[in-house]
Amino acid sequence: MSSASSVPQNPTTHNVAQILPKLNDPDSDIRYMTLNDLLMMLNNGSPTLISHDYTTCCKVVDGLLHTLADTHGDVQNMAIKCLGPFVIKAPENILCPTIEKVSNIKTEGSLDISIPALGLMRIVVALPHPVPGVAKSSKLNEAYGAVSKALIPRIVGRVVVPLKENKSHPAPPKGMLQEELETGNDSNTLDLLAEVARCFGPMLQEAEVQALEEITMKVLESDKCGTVMKKKAVAALSALAPYFSEGLLAHHVTNTIEKLRSPHLTSQQRRLYITVYGSLARSIPQKFGPYLKTLTPFVLAPLSDIELKQQEAVEAEADGERDTQLEEVREAGFIALENFLQACPSDMKPYKKDVLEAATRFLKYEPNVADDDDEDMEEEEAADDDFDLDEDFEEETGFEDEDDVSWKVRRCSAKALYALIGTLDPNDPALSGTIAPALIARFKEKEESVRSEIIATLAYLITKTGSIDARDTTSDSGHVIPPSRKRRRGFSESLGSDLQAQQALMNGYASPSTPPPTDTGTKGLAKINPDIVKGAAKLLKSSTPQTKEVVLSLLKDMVLAQRGGLSEHAGLVVDPVVDALTTSSGGGSNLAGNKLRVEALGLLRVVAEMHSSKVLEPHLARVVPALVAAAKDRYAKVSSEAFGTIECFIKALTPPRSAASNVKNGQYLTQLHQVVTDRVSASDTDTEVRQKAVQALGLLIGRTSGSAGQKLFGQDSRFAGQQLIADRLKNELTRLPCVRAVDTIAVLAQNKNDFKPEFVSNVALELAAQLRKASRGLRGASLSALRMLAVNEASRSCLDDQTIVQVVEMLIPLLQTEDLHMMSPALVVLAAFAKDKPSLVATPPVIQGVCGIVTSPISGAALEALITCVEAMGHAGAGKDLMKALLDVGVKGDTDVTGQVIGTLLVSGGDSVGVSLDAFVKELKSQSDESRKCLALSVLGEAGLRMGTNSPLKPDSFTAYFTDPSEKVKLAAAVALGRAGAGNVKAYLPKTLDAMSQGGGYHLLHSVKELLQHSTAEDDIKPYTANLWSNIISSGQAEDNKVVGAECIGRLAIIDPQAYIPQLQSFLHDNNPAIRGMVISALRYVFSDTDASYNTNLQNTIVPMQEAMLADTDLDNQRLSLSTFNSALHNKPELILPNLATLLPYAMAATVPRPELIREVSMGPFKHKIDDGLEIRKSAFETLYALLESPASRQRLDIVAFYDRIVAGVGDEHEIKILCCLVLSKLLVIAPAESTRRMDSLSQQFRAVLAFKPKENAVKQELEKLQEQAKAVVKVSVGFNKVLGSEGEGGGRAWRDYFEWVKKEFPVYIKQAQEEEARDR
């Protein structure tokens, strides 16, 4: 017997020929092992192993044909496996004979009649396939030639494409599918046909596609062929459809319409044609969509009320006997409608009402149950006994419940409603007026799968209608402080706002309440809320664990969508939820019980987050013990979820949300504290559970701070908890959650007595020690906690001098501009310490660090933190050494940053810094060096801003330098004038306006910009706004002044909206494109720099202004308008989203390349194409990316049209390719169904990007771009393959072939993408 060890590593033709005689051995085991050896030789051998030995090839073919007809199935299967590697290595001229002989195998002695088709499928898959964007090779042409000459004629039974040679060839034998049509036996030939379409579809000629379509339709129409064959025929048509010509598709549709109109049409034929329509809609939505106007009525016909009444009449005449085939037609009809709505939503708009009527009609279709639409659920339950009396009737008619397939119709009608909801606007009255009541009425559905589908559809409706106002309520451990739009003045204000922002974010001072409905969608949701709650409560009491799970998820979605909504019905929900949490899984598996409990805990969590404490108090006696029991659960997922819920209840039980006088709340907190500390301390606690418990403990200690909190929770328990956190802070597994717990405690502490002695000092040192660890997440969290300990005076007062010294030393390495995210909080900590202990902070290393920072051009939050720190030192009288060091740095640093720091220190430190304002005035007058002048001007400007009306500086102190020869000095003087003017508007602004009227627009615009940006005296500015407006409009039209002028106009509109928003709107229609562009840019500042209180000034004008902007014909203005539209989407969604259908088409149209904007220029001997529309398209695609950020905007998108533009963008220029890959990563999660349908088309686009070869003389920059886009494409491909491709759900042969090619050609990029994904997790 052969064995694997007998196969040589580099086999030759002689080795192959040597084993072939064994294929005729009488022992089946030897035949099998010989085939196995042959397979290994063919796989291991060189590409030319047998390509030059025709004799051996013929013998291999004979041997394989002999074993394919073997009587043993294992031998046949091994022979089939050998066919693929053989045809790859065999010479091309042997391919046609091999296909013919394999197709003519007679398997009389075998029970398996599918051997020929399976063998041919193996051959077709193994042959080279056409790839979009890749030139066709000679081997590919030979492979297609063999398929065209030998395989397709054998499938259809005739020569489809006549041979070019003028030779007479014998007619092919009866086709494989013709034989199946005669016998009705399935031999997998339809699977073979589908594989030919998938592998060689792009190369098939129209006659071949037509022949394959005709024979497939004959199978569909045949009476002999069974259901399985007809399902395969539908799949084969779906595979062929992408290669239908317009004429063939039109003929196919016309032919099927004629059949559907035939009076002799059977229910089975009708079902098949409708199924084909649904399949074609999914396969070729763009080509098939226009036909839906004609075809949809045929699909809706069996779902009409007319046919339903006709059926009832026929059944009455037949004594109740029903035609079950008609139910299958209806099932197919709803499946087709679902496909139509998902694949071609725009083409289905005229039929949405008809679909809605049909789906709601059959959602309640139960032929075996009397029509009781007018009765409620209680009456129906009371009538159950009466229904049982009908059992004898069923027996007499011979109809049993198990023969009832009407549940499939109901389930598919619910799915069709789901698809319909996806195409409707959230404010469509049909959602809450028609669809929701129909779904709620079917909560009484007895079939489990139908009930689950109905509840899932209702949950989707709730999510869609509530998405406009719903916000993400999940707490985030990384607390974000909103950036200030104005320059902060004063140390206490700066640090106070920092702490207050954290407290507001973490604490939630206002007790939550359900916001009032604001539009049709939310009003409708509020209207159906009571019915949903009542129906859900009944299901929670009586249904199966699976149904309870989806009901809990439904209620959770409803609470999130309404941000509450259970205030009046909490009693109906909470008790059954607690029962679901505490009882066993009701006879189901432990897995089902655990999933149910996790859902129950998730619902309790959002109920606690979204409702006031008064709503929760009556139910705490039952809820809290249930939470304690769940927290002790051995299943980690349950206990982990329990601690997340416990955190929300801790917030609900403690001030300010709950009154401290409630004694029972203290008892509940004690119970929660006990289970939290037990799980933190227990040695057998799961790591994730312990981490969640630590966070809950930190929240409990923080929320019970102050005298009010201590009435609820004893001081001893709080101190014990703090000690436990301090101890666990030293453990690596719980260090990060302990750091966050300390952060929480520090933010919420109200006085020094809230801390255990030595606790603050110990944890401060431990936190400071973490700043040197490798983990960036741990370092960031530790620094955040340290910042809160320093900023809150309650905790800062607990720190002794030695601890502060040690912490300051550990912060010094962070005073570097290489990492601004770490530098800024470190400076805030130093500023807080400097307030009380300036001598401990103003050390030489700290001063050296500050001097190092000012050498870099920093801005934003980093600059604010630096100025805050310096200001604190100045106020504390410790700025003398720092001033000396800064003056030594002088012009070696960034003059603007250094000047702002010195000016801040000069004002805050006063006489203690050893330098006066006059010294800088003299320096400015006496210096001729450009940099020193700029530095002096920056110092004086900052000093003027901070001194305000007390400043001795006059406008002339700065305007005198507008005539300096140096452009840098002029600009520095302009900026300094504006900053000083922000401190004393009445003295500076009139002089500035006088100067603007005499010229010097560029520099004075910068002065105005700085004044408007930094000044908080808006009342002082308003008298001058009219003059300012006219001067800015006239000066801002110059090319160099556009950007600054736009910002100034925007800030004026913010100061006096009633006067200038109408002006902006009118200027959008100005004939001068420069003025229109300046106004468009100005609106971007208006949108980004105003809060919700400003919206009343925009609500009537924002949409007309956006339309006017987006319709602008100037190219630069088109780009600016898209950028402004993006800003409006981000900052004013409540004003833009209701009108998205009006505005979005402009952005969608802008993503299409415009040939008229592509021009060719000569660069020496070369021609170079320049695309003037590229920047516009980039802005448009950025807008599309922004639309995916919020659920509210996502719900309003036509995902099919959206996806079309993104797929097209993958083939656009480099920057757009990268952006589209990012969008696709989001769409993979947001729209998995549509992503699945797009996988094959994406594989073509991706392959074209990856297969592009640069020219030999390509520059480095171009090569880097190609590498970047290749990495981006591979990364998104890995994501798609993991989510949709690995299970075989998404994509067809094209995607699988593409991804195999990527794995072979780009293994390094694949590995990098997988590593990045692992890091992100």
TrEMBL record:
Keyword Repeat in annotation: yes
Region described as Disordered: spans on this chain: 1-20, 471-493, 507-526
Keyword Repeat in annotation: yes
Name this polypeptide is given: TATA-binding protein interacting (TIP20) domain-containing protein
PANTHER family tied to this protein: TIP120
Pfam annotation, one family: TIP120
Family: Belongs to the CAND family.
Keywords annotated in UniProt: Repeat, Ubl conjugation pathway
Domain TATA-binding protein interacting (TIP20): 1135-1303
Classification via InterPro entries: ARM-like, ARM-type_fold, CAND1/CAND2, TATA-bd_TIP120
Biased composition range(s): Polar residues: 1-16
GO terms classed as biological process: SCF complex assembly
